[in-house]
Amino acid sequence: MRAEVDTMLCKAYANCTFEAPEVFEVDETTGKAHILVEGSLESRRDEVERAVDACPVGAIRLTK
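User: That's the sequence. What structure does it adopt?
Assistant: C-alpha cells below.
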C-alpha cells in the first residue's frame, strides 16, 4: 500500500500529520503535505488510514 497527496487539493490543515506524524509532513515552503516515507506503508496501515479519513478535503488517497 502506498499513499499519494494531491497537492492541488491540499489546504495544509495538517490533520494527516497529527494522525501519522512519521509518514506525513507539511512543507514549510509549499504549504502542502507530502509523504516522508518511501515505498510501502503497509506496516503503518492503521495510522495512514486514519490520516486519509482525517483529511477534510480528501487530498490523500491510498494506492496499491
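The chain has two helices and four strands.
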